[in-house]
Design brief:
Layout: H1 8-22, H2 24-30, E1 36-40, H3 45-56, E2 61-65, H4 69-76, E3 87-90, E4 93-97, H5 101-110, E5 116-119, E6 140-142, E7 150-151
């Protein structure tokens, strides 16, 4: 009778390699996330916290401060009922307000026929509003297939 023997080291190495190959971190390394270009008012503390979370979530970010709040929203085409405190653009989409990063990742992966996604106003518990980098709140899509506004389904949401 013949037995294939494996050393404990080989078994641990193989299991570790398999786990690494399937981990979300490997997926992020394989395909870098696009840059978020954020516009915000200069004195908004919650926007600064959200930007810090953008970096923590693995995105590159550029920030431009503006005092033209209305101009920032209208230039990005955000419908007024969906306005929040900051506006970001990434890879052809608009991201309005304290949007969860899982929603942004789903948007960029699935590339739906919409103009953007929003978390209107500044809800408590959203990223930057008391919620951390993994916080989840309802998200609204608009434009294209979403029309004037529809719930945006995303991984983890």
């Amino acid at each position: 009778m013949t037995f294939n023997s494996f050393s404990r080291r080989a078994l641990v190495f193989g299991a570790s390699a398999a786990c690494l190959a399937m981990s979300p971190a490997t997926a992020l390394l394989a395909e870098p996330l696009p840059r978020l270009e954020v516009q915000k008012t200069p004195n908004c503390g919650c926007c600064a916290v959200w930007v810090d979370y953008v970096r923590e979530a693995g995105f590159e970010v550029t920030v431009a401060d503006t005092y033209d709040y209305v101009g920032m929203k209208t230039a990005a085409g955000v419908p007024e009922p969906l306005w929040s405190c900051h506006t970001a653009r990434t890879d052809g989409y608009v991201v309005e307000g304290h949007v969860p990063f899982a929603a942004i990742r789903t948007l960029l992966r699935d590339r739906p026929d919409i103009a953007g996604i929003s978390v209107p106003e500044m809800p408590a518990g959203s990223p930057g509003m008391g919620g951390g980098v993994d916080a989840v709140v309802p998200v609204t899509a608009w434009g294209g297939a979403a029309g004037a506004g529809a719930p945006f389904a995303f991984d983890g949401g």
